[in-house]
C-alpha cells in the first residue's frame, strides 16, 4: 500500500520546544535511558527516578510539569539533548504522525521543522517509526 511519505519527507528540528509541550504527552524512558540520563547528571538512578520520573502501566516516563511540558525543557531548550530518550530522538516520525498526509499537515501547524531542511528517505522514516520505546521494569 502506497504511503504519502514514499518519496521521503523533509524535517529539521528548529529547537522550538513545541514537541516537548504536547498536551497529555508522556515521554517513556527505558532502563538504558534511565542509566544514561542519570549518568549525565552524575546521580544515582534511584534518586533520578524519584526526582524526574513516574511509573505507570507501560513502565517509566519522565514527569511532566504542570502544563504538560517535559521536565527537562529549560528556556525552550532540551537540557538533556545529547542523551534524550528514543521517543524524542524519533520525533516527528511516530506512527500516529505518519498515518496520513493530513496528520502530517496538522503537525506542521505547530512544528516549524516539518517540510523544512533535511530530506529523510522512506526507509529512514520507516526505521524511525518502527521503534517502540516501551520499557520493561
What does this entry look like structurally?
The protein has 137 residues and is an alpha+beta fold. The protein has one domain (24-129). It is 28% helix and 18% strand. The chain contains five helices and seven strands. The chain has helices at residues 31-40, 45-52, 86-89, 101-108, 122-129, and strands spanning 9-11, 27-28, 53-56, 59-62, 73-74, 77-78, 114-120. It has a three-stranded antiparallel sheet with strand order 2-4-3. The chain has a two-stranded antiparallel sheet with strand order 1-7. A two-stranded antiparallel ribbon has the order 5-6. The longest helix is centred in the first third of the chain and has 10 residues, at 31-40. The chain is elongated and about 45 Å long.
Largest sheet: 3 strands, antiparallel
Q: Distance N terminus to C terminus?
A: 36 Å
Form type: elongated
Strand content: 15-25%
Q: Helix amount, in percent?
A: 25-40%
Structural class: alpha+beta
The side-by-side strand order for the widest beta sheet comes to 2-4-3
- Average pLDDT confidence is 87
What is the succession of H and E elements?
EEHHEEEEHHEH
Q: Low-confidence runs (pLDDT<50, min 5 residues)?
A: 133-137
Number of helical stretches of at least 4 residues: 5
DSSP E strands, number: 7
Amino acid at each position: 500500500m502506497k504511503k504519502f511519505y514514499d518519496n521521503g519527507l523533509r524535517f529539521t528540528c528548529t529547537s522550538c520546544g513545541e514537541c516537548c509541550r504536547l498536551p497529555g504527552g508522556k515521554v517513556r524512558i527505558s532502563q538504558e535511558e534511565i542509566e544514561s540520563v542519570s549518568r549525565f547528571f552524575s546521580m544515582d538512578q534511584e534518586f533520578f527516578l524519584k526526582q524526574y520520573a513516574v511509573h505507570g502501566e507501560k513502565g517509566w516516563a519522565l514527569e511532566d510539569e504542570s502544563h504538560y511540558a517535559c521536565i527537562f525543557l529549560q528556556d525552550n531548550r532540551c537540557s538533556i539533548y545529547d542523551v534524550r530518550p528514543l521517543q524524542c530522538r524519533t520525533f516527528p516520525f511516530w506512527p500516529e504522525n505518519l498515518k496520513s498526509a493530513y496528520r502530517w499537515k496538522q503537525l506542521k501547524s505547530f512544528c516549524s521543522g516539518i517540510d523544512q531542511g533535511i530530506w529523510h528517505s522512506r526507509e529512514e522514516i520507516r526505521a524511525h517509526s518502527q521503534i517502540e520505546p516501551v520499557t520493561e521494569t
